[in-house]
Amino acid sequence: MPKSADFHVETSDTGAVAVLTGDWTAVGMGRASERLADALAAEPTATVDLTQVGRCDTSGVYGVLRAIRETDGHEKIVASPEVDRLVKMVRAATQAPPTPNRVPRPFYDLFDRIGRGVVDIGLSIVDINIFTGHLLVAIGRALANPRRIRWAVFSLAERAGLDAIPIVATTTFFIGAVVGLLGANLLRQFGAQVFAVELIGISVLREFNVLITALLLAGRSASAFAAEIGSMKMNQEIDAMQVLGIDPFDALVFPRFLALLVTIPLLVFVATLAGLAGGLVVTTTVLDLSPTIFFQRLIDNVGITHFWVGMSKAPVMAVVIAGIGCRQGLDVGGDVESLGRHVTSAVVQAIFSAILIDAVFALIYMQLDV
User: Fold this and answer.
1) Residues 251, 133: one domain?
2) Which long-range contacts (CB under 8 A, 24 or more apart) does 142-148 make?
3) Which residues form the domain of 186?
């Protein structure tokens, strides 16, 4: 039967002694530590005797030490070897080292953050090269043995391509309409509003069709790829695949890479038609141009070259978006915070890369006079 913690104060030739009895545990201590603190306040030089304690744990020892420290900090404790070891352990755990006063060093902190950022960029470049090399090996294996390609490609192509057609078509339709309105209002000042057709054709065929498609897939497919692969990484499914001898690049990365590579040109074509339709609606309603004149000016003054210029960017966009989404998914750690951080990084990096690639292509074609 456990006994409640208690104590009594004895007076001897050497001074007062607080003799503790009963079970000084988390369950049996109760308010004994508070009463002990009041008794030690009346006898600040009293010795605390723990030799007659029944059961004792860290909570009981902490209560005794706290009662002593609430008086004058005098610690003269008599205990058995077992309890004495417990007292030393609790005392060491509760005596935290003083926090040193940190001298502010703004310039040092600034350069420290810059240095860490540069190192992180270097490590990211190394990781990208490793990922690219592994992906190229997986592509080579698939080309050497097409039977290695998994049927999941068709399901992924449907989710990344066909399911994205409504949002891509709607967005580019309004983009084409906005370009037509701006062109009509601007060119009307010079009496050249009919050239709004050429403005719509060139801007939609060369830039907006592929750029809007890439930005939408960067937020849609790159985040989905990172979340899917990242959740598998958290649940140790990728580790299980490696134990079974299955390369995650063959099973997870290459199918998504191939699915996006096939579907982005289709989506760019749909975006082109939708953007031209938006421009056609504006020129028909605002400029009173017939559809025949609209398409005739497109054929005569715009031509097919601008269409192929825009389509040539689609495979590069597909490779970059799929690669970023899959790489961020494989870098996910074992917690939800890491998953959210890498999904966000996948979207941001994919959007930035799409805009950068479009700018690089624009410079290249400008130098080639295409």
Assistant:
1) yes
2) 142/250, 142/254, 142/258, 148/250
3) 126-368
The CA distances from residue 197 to 168, 173, 276, 299, in Å, are 22, 15, 9, 11
The number of domains in the chain is 2
Rounded-to-integer distance, Cα 58 and Cα 299, Å: 87
- Same domain, yes or no, for 133 and 66? no
Based on the fold, state whether residues 90 and 194 are members of the same structural domain: no
**pTM (2 d.p.):** 0.69
Distances (CA, A) of 67 to 55, 128, 240: 18, 60, 54
- Domain of 61, CATH number, reads 3.30.750.24
pLDDT tens column, 131-190 = 889 889 988 888 888 887 777 788 888 887 788 899 999 999 999 999 989 888 888 888
Structure tokens at 346: 């996948």
The candidate with the shortest Cα–Cα distance to 211, out of 247, 251, 257, 179, is 179
